[in-house]
Every structure is written in C-alpha cells, then in structure tokens.
Design the sequence.
C-alpha cells in the first residue's frame, strides 16, 4: 500500500464521507474505509456507504471497496442465546432473532461466541470477509440483513481447527465482544453448547441483560435446558424465556403436522421452572436450507419469518419492560 494512493483516493470521496472518514487503507486492490456514522439513521448510513463505494470503485488500483461503519455510543444490552445441549438450533435462533429484531427497527449486532465451531458467517452470508481493526478494536462486518456480526469465522480460515486452550478462547471472545459495537442497542450472543470457560467469561465479564434458552421438545434436551437455566440464574442473569425449536413437522407433501420429537415439552419445562414460554419454531426443511445458504428465514416472508418475528417482538418487549416482565 502506498500513502500516496490512499491520499489520492481520499480526494475522490464525497464531502460527507471525507468528513466522516476514520481511516482508509489499500491492500491487494482492496480499499477499506472506516466511516463514523454518528447520528445517521440506517437509510442515511446506506446512502453514505453507497456514495463512498461509488466514488472509489473504478479508481486506479482498486478492484474492491469495503466500507465499515462506526456509530455513536448508545446504551447496549446483551441477550445471550444458550441451550446446554448442542445442535438444538441456538445459532439458527440467534441469527434469526437478530434479523427479526433489525426488521422491527432495533439496532442489533450479533456476536458468535462459539469460538471453536463458529457458524454465524455462514448463517449471515458473510463468509470470507475479514474485519478491520480501528484503535485496536475490531469493526463488525456488515451483513446484508442489517445485522453487523463478529465471529471467529471472520478471523480464521475455514476448516482450520482452532486448538486453543480455555483462556485463549476466552480472550478471543473478549475481542469479539469489545469490538466497535457502539451503534448497537442490542447485542445477541450465540453461545456454544455446554458450561465451559466461554460461558463463564460471558456471564462474569459481560453480564448479559438476559438469556434466551433454546430447547427441542425431547426430554434429554429439556434436562440440558434446565441445567443452562440454572447456570444463568446462578450467574445472576435473568432468563427472558424458553423457545421450543424443531417443534411440529409439516409434511411438505400432504401438509400433515407430526411431532417427531414430541410436543409441548419445552412449554411444560418453562412452566415448571417458573419461566416464560416464548413460543415454537417449526421443524422445517426450508429453515435449514435457507440458513445453510446464508439467507436467514427471518428476512423472508411466510410462517417461518412470522415465527421469528413473534419471538423478536417478545424479546423486544422484555427489554423495553425490563426484567420485571420476565416472571409474569
Ligand atoms: N427449526 C428448524 N427446522 C429445520 N432445521 C433446523 C431448525 N433449527 C435448526 N435447524 C438445523 O439444525 C442444525 C443445527 O442447528 P444450529 O447449528 O443452529 O444448532 P446449535 O444449537 O447452534 O448447534 P451447536 O451446539 O453445534 O452450536 C442446522 O443444520 C440447522 O440448519
Ligand atoms: Mg451453534
């Protein structure tokens, strides 16, 4: 990268982008800009981003333009999505909860706290992108769904096994959580399964405002969900409620709804634990296919999107009303 090249590109920027420019770097034909988005709403941000991109694309030596936005500080609260048991749909739930909240006008970011098995880059379609650092803090990657994200998947190569010890994993999590989240009022954190170092760091250091517990309807998943609820409660983190995922399978051929994993178990478990039941997300082939393709179902239309929208509304209301609404 040459300084002259960066200076030359700065001169091409429209006035507003130039005023808001925090940094501009060029490497391997890729120009990366960090802009201060303080005070801009989302349409003004998009317009600023588009104008900056347009001004630089086609400039000599620039094959690609990336724009990262940093915004003013707002009060930010963390909602952790946890389960105890693996594979019940935490990551899917976290993505779609975040996307649905963004659709409802909330400023929301997503942290993938699964250091060893990150999935949010795939789920949000941001694979292969690398975050820039500004003031030694990571700038979240903008996704197409209005939800900025930070995940280990953006910092390591796909398929690369991360054989870190607990303290290093906890350090990585800290980097993700301490990124430039200044514009986000809600940070959804996708937790890995279990009750290890990452979860402990999360609870002790970052004090989530609340936890959403995901369970499938099976007894075993429910037992693990109960354990997860106990972990959060012991850590002083209020439970927003329990979501039953993979509930009720609608046959794509005849439409008949069956319950491969049983039904209503999570609702009953929530009741037993004196917790709010936040609703059901159906077991649906399109949820898996769209998720794998980086196209969050919550961004679409139809019953799946509706189920996530309902969940997001309840979580949003819980945040607006404070923890007092957690135990009706
Ligand atoms: N409601 C659903 N309908 C259909 N498939 C689903 C649903 N929820 C999740 N899945 C699929 O189930 C698999 C596991 O989901 P996901 O990765 O979200 O679980 P997880 O709890 O985050 O897993 P891990 O514990 O490994 O982090 C994925 O292939 C996902 O697409
Ligand atoms: Mg996961």
Sequence:
């Amino acid at each position: 990268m040459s300084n002259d090249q960066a200076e030359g590109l700065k001169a091409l920027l429209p006035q507003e982008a130039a005023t808001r420019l925090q940094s501009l770097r060029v490497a391997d034909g890729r120009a990366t800009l960090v802009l201060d988005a303080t005070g801009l709403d989302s349409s003004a941000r998009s317009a600023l981003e588009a104008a900056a991109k347009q001004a630089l694309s086609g400039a000599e030596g620039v094959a690609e333009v990336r724009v990262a936005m940093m915004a003013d500080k707002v009060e930010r609260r963390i909602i952790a999505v946890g389960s105890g048991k693996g594979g019940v749909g935490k990551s899917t739930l976290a993505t779609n909860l975040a996307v649905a909240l963004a659709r409802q006008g909330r400023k929301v970011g997503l942290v993938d706290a699964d250091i060893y098995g990150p999935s949010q880059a795939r789920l949000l379609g941001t694979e292969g992108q690398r975050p820039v650092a500004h003031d030694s803090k990571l700038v979240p990657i903008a996704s197409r769904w209005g939800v900025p994200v930070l995940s280990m998947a953006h910092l390591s190569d796909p398929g690369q096994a991360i054989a870190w010890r607990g303290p290093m994993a906890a350090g990585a999590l800290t980097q993700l959580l301490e990124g430039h989240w200044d514009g986000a009022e809600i940070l959804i954190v996708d937790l890995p399964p279990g009750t290890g170092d990452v979860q402990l760091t999360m609870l002790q250091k970052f004090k989530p405002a609340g936890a959403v517990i995901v369970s499938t309807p099976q007894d075993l998943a429910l037992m693990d969900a109960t354990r997860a609820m106990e972990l959060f409660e012991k850590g002083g983190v209020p439970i927003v409620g329990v979501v039953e995922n993979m509930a009720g399978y609608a046959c794509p051929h005849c439409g008949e709804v069956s319950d491969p994993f049983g039904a209503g178990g999570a609702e009953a478990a929530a009741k037993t634990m004196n917790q709010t039941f936040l609703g059901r997300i159906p077991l649906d082939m399109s949820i898996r296919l769209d998720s794998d393709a980086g196209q969050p179902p919550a961004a679409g239309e139809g019953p799946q999107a509706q189920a996530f929208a309902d969940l997001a509304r309840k979580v949003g209301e819980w945040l607006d009303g404070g923890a007092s609404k957690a135990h009706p």
In short: DSSP finds eleven helices and 13 strands in the chain. The CA atoms of residues 102 and 108 lie 6 Å apart.
